[in-house]
């Protein structure tokens, strides 16, 4: 293993000892093997390549204050992957197998879990795809499930930093009855181009509205939307075409635990200025405060210009505190790998 400078880790792929790989054939999953090489050979007619039968998940493992390593809510990712598998006619990965795969691969790469105190974590990336050959548009008869891991650094080196977001009305992310609610690979391919446009205009994140009316807030490209109202409520969007974020569910529970009322309901875009704080939430960053949102040349202020408001800060610190074993894990979210 090469020496890692834990303090300069970003969010980038790094080779580790191994990944774990399973194959589904004739209605059965293999036992799963740890594979050292990050390369694999794949059939040229695999359905993942031609027809997008491919889905992924993202979760993290943390080195806690007590030295143990735990995964954060892996069953939730397992259930979401199963939902994506059903929607895309892929073989389902049973929840137990999914959690066991994550534990086995993290255990085999413990040296790569950033030490407690560095603010880093191990990013865990499960991937399921059609590896069987098919030339007509049809589901594959063979699937591969693998889990790779890579160490990542803290997103915020010194405190939470606000970003600016943009609505690009010329693009939609997901149709009302489409696949926005599942984590199918194609959802991300189509988001790359709008993301480049947003970046070129100086906005690190883009916010999508509903595809039918362009009236209701949906979500950011890779994270859910949440707002804290001026009277202290946690509000997040209800829609059948957004990805059910596990971080969002976690934050909602922490909000309730702290006496903050939670509303999951349609949010009209005009409502953005009613919020005292707005954030994007997801596994990679937990929360990203959003200070303003631009739409069609108008800038809407949505939170403090820099840093972060008090409610988001409290929620962020609580999630991280639980993940690193500094605060009691009253909901049993941490799953130890050893
Ligand atoms: C479209 C989208 N929304 C939301 C999220 C956040 O979900 P989670 O909190 O489970 O990481 C993600 C990341 O997986 C995403 O890709």
Describe this structure in words.
The chain has 338 residues and is an alpha+beta fold. Helix content is 22%, strand content 29%. It folds into 2 domains: 6-152, Aminotransferase class 4, branched-chain amino acid transferase, N-terminal domain (D-amino Acid Aminotransferase, Chain A, domain 1), CATH 3.30.470.10; 163-323, D-amino Acid Aminotransferase, subunit A, domain 2 (D-amino Acid Aminotransferase, Chain A, domain 2), CATH 3.20.10.10. The strands form 2 sheets. Strands 1, 2, 3, 4, 5, 6, 7, 8 and 18 form a 9-stranded antiparallel sheet that branches. A 6-stranded mixed β-barrel has the order 9-10-11-12-15-16. The model has no long low-confidence stretch (mean pLDDT 97). The chain binds pyridoxal-5'-phosphate. Pyridoxal-5'-phosphate is lined by residues 58, 219, 222-224, 243, 245-248, 282-283. Pyridoxal-5'-phosphate (PLP) is lined by residues 58, 219, 222-224, 243, 245-248, 282-283.
């Amino acid at each position: 293993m090469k020496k890692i400078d834990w303090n300069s880790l970003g969010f980038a792929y790094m080779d580790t000892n191994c990944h774990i790989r399973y194959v589904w054939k004739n209605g059965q999953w293999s036992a799963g093997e740890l594979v050292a090489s990050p390369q694999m050979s794949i059939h040229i007619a695999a359905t993942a390549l031609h027809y997008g039968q491919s889905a992924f998940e993202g979760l993290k493992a943390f080195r806690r204050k007590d030295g143990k390593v735990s995964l954060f809510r892996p069953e939730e990712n397992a259930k979401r992957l199963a939902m994506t598998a059903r929607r895309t006619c892929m073989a389902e990965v049973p929840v137990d197998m999914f959690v066991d795969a994550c534990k086995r691969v993290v255990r085999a790469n413990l040296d790569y879990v950033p030490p407690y105190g560095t603010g880093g974590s191990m990013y865990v990336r499960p991937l399921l795809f059609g590896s069987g050959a098919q030339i007509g548009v049809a589901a594959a008869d063979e699937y591969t499930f693998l889990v790779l891991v890579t160490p990542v650094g803290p997103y915020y080196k010194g405190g939470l930093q606000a970003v600016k977001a943009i609505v690009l009305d010329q693009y939609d992310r997901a149709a009302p009855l489409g696949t926005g609610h599942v984590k199918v690979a194609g959802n991300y391919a189509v988001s790359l181009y709008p993301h480049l446009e947003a970046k070129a205009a100086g906005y690190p994140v883009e916010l999508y509205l509903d595809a039918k009316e362009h009236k209701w807030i949906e979500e950011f490209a890779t994270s859910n939307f949440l707002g804290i109202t001026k009277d202290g409520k946690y509000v997040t969007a209800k829609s059948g075409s957004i990805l059910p974020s596990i971080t969002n569910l976690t934050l909602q529970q922490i909000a309730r635990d702290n006496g903050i009322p939670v509303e999951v309901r349609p949010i009209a875009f005009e409502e953005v200025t009613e919020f005292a704080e707005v954030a994007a939430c997801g596994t990679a960053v937990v929360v990203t405060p959003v200070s303003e949102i631009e739409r069609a040349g108008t800038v809407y202020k949505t939170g403090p210009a820099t840093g972060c408001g008090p409610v988001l800060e409290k929620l962020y610190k609580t999630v991280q505190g639980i993940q690193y074993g500094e605060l009691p894990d009253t909901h049993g979210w941490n799953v130890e790998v050893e």
